[in-house]
Amino acid sequence: MLRLHGNRKVLCDGLTRRDLLHIGGLGAFGLALHDVLGSNQAQAKPANLGPKFGQAKSCILIYKYGSPPQHETFDPKPLAPAEIQGEMKAIPTSVPGIHIGDHLPKIARIMDRLTVVRSLTHRFPLHGTVYALSGVEDVDTRIEAQPRNSRQWPFIGSLVDYFEDRRSGGPPPEMPRNIALPFPMGSKNEIPPLAGPYGAMIGSRYDPIYTNFSAEGTMSAPEIVAGRAFRDPLFGIRPTDRLHLGEAALVERDSARLDLRRSLLAQFNQARRNLDASERTQTFTHQQQTAFSLLTSGKMHDALDYTRETMRIRELYGMTLFGQSCLAARRLIEVGAKFVTVIWDAYGLNAGSWDTHHNHYGRLKDFLLPVFDQTFSALILDLEQRGLLDETLVLVISEHGRTPQIDSRPRGAGRHHWSRAYSQVYAGGGMGRGNLIGRTDQHAGDVVESPISPKDILATAFYLLGIDPESTFTDPAGRPLPFTGTGVLRPELIG
């Protein structure tokens, strides 16, 4: 598939990753092997799956890399000892009986639109996206660390694209179905990228189309390591800073590659001028058609340009890269994007983002929670006011939770990896409203009621998007594999 952005990195296995930016795709000029689609027949629409099946016409997935703590967000334990609950308290919400962390006041006011699950649980307290966002049942550090490990399963957005591709049987749509913002995962910190969302076994043409962002942030995020501060754009950007597509995003050191890229762009521009007269476009493959439809249309570029919005709307979302990316996601689904992922990724240090091993309280209070509170609440209200919330599924997902007991040794304290119990929040597209699912023990360390697997969340999301959760894809050996592994539809999540 068309890959728009990225840079060369040496991976953990010693391989060199190919550039993610190919203007129009090399395949559009016959310079790469063509992917060949299999059967164009979609799996038959299942019968009797209920009235909410297919209510969601699109999905916005917010991925909070690093994993937020359950205690300071959606499962506070105000009666627990100080070494468990820590410095932060609980506040009531718009739904009687539901309390959440005291640094999420805006979200507390819209709890009647949301579903909170407090009983997510699994066995793998590891960073990455493979386990959380695909059907694979067993992971380890190697599969999560290597971007193209052969054991990876397809990302949920890639499977949505794959399914729709077969259901339609036609050329790719003018608006790509599977888009990721704001920059390629793992491209803005110090270590090689982890296994970001990919098409995996169904082919790289189903990788998300990534945007990029190259401006420096305006605010120094609270330090993770003393003396190492970063101007993190997820904390603040200038109003004129934008997401972008195209050659300008590259930091290119290989002049031969750059010359080739310019040559390809010149060839593409000539092809575009001759588009109406050219018969060549009639024989484009899926990858070529995706590249051509994307670059000959201003639809996606216009939707990404959040500067077209009023300053009032932009400031509601927050003048941060996370805020403006969520605004761009709303603009994209308005004009036909099917699945848009906003990744709150680590910037600068790998232990950034929501991975609060160090300076836990400072980062949560001064950066992470206020930014998330403002942007997420603005997104939900904006979708509602535009009549889009009922048909837009919004998922907030992370790898795992954090330890029940505070570690007081690091500066600013810390919580570490914990997957036995954690919380997430969802909205729209058929999800319940004012819904609280599951319960943990007095320390939020173990699930005591309604355990839910990350695979169950994926199965429920597929259902709401009109895809049978029992659908399968074919692995390289020709074996059918279920989209969500052992995941099952959870009716209690649905409103």
Structural notes for this entry:
It is a single chain. This protein is α/β, with parallel strands linked by helices and 495 residues long. The chain has a single domain (35-246, 281-493), classed as Alkaline Phosphatase, subunit A (3-Layer(aba) Sandwich), CATH 3.40.720.10. Helix content is 25%, strand content 13%. It contains twelve helices and 16 strands. It has helices spanning 82-85, 105-109, 130-133, 141-145, 156-168, 255-273, 286-295, 299-304, 311-317, 321-334, 360-385, 454-464; strands at 58-64, 90-92, 99-101, 114-120, 178-181, 209-210, 339-344, 392-397, 401-402, 417-418, 422-427, 435-437, 439-440, 447-449, 472-474, 480-482. The strands form five sheets. The chain has an eight-stranded mixed sheet with strand order 6-5-7-1-8-11-4-12, sandwiched between helices. It has a two-stranded antiparallel sheet with strand order 2-3. Strands 9-10 form a two-stranded antiparallel ribbon. α10 (321-334) runs parallel beside α11 (360-385). The longest helix is centred in the last third of the chain and has 26 residues, at 360-385. The radius of gyration is 22 Å and the shape is globular. The two termini are 36 Å apart. Mean pLDDT is 85; it is low at 1-45, 246-262 and 275-284.
